[in-house]
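Hi R.,

As promised on Friday, here is the backbone we talked about, encoded as structure tokens. Could you run it through your design pipeline when you get a chance and send me back a sequence?
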């Protein structure tokens, strides 16, 4: 592998990671904002409001990470963009199930900063793993 191919390979990993994390943050924030507006406009905002907020955070994280990774790889012209995002979609589904199933427990015991740090690191490392498996 030449030096240029090696450099492009690392740039692809960086693009996948930054695109995935950025997409997850942006789309989660948008979904949570829309869910908050919905809950505030409804009169019966009890448990239904919590469910709407949780589902919007799940959807925002999962869809945002995959979409952000795909856009970064596609706009950058990197090879295996579709294969990487397909693998990332599968990996993200399981990560959402594992991490966000612990959110109700985090609310009862207090939100721990280490939990959110772990979610952030997962948002960065999942695209790296998907990119590695796609190559």
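Update: got your reply. Pasting your designed sequence below so it's all in one thread:
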């Amino acid at each position: 592998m030449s030096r240029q191919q090696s450099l492009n390979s690392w740039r692809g990993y960086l693009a996948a990671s930054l695109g995935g994390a950025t997409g997850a943050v942006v789309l989660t924030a948008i979904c949570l904002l829309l869910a908050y507006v919905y809950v505030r406009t409804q009169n019966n905002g009890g448990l239904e409001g919590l469910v709407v907020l949780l589902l919007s955070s799940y959807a925002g994280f999962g869809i945002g990470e995959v979409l952000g990774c795909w856009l970064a790889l596609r706009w950058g012209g990197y090879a295996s963009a579709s294969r990487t995002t397909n693998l990332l979609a599968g990996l993200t589904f399981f990560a959402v199930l594992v991490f966000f199933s612990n959110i109700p427990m985090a609310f009862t015991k207090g939100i721990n900063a280490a939990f959110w740090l772990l979610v952030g690191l997962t948002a960065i490392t999942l695209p790296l793993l998907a990119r590695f498996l796609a190559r």
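One thing I noticed while checking it: The chain has five helices and no strands.

Thanks again,
M.
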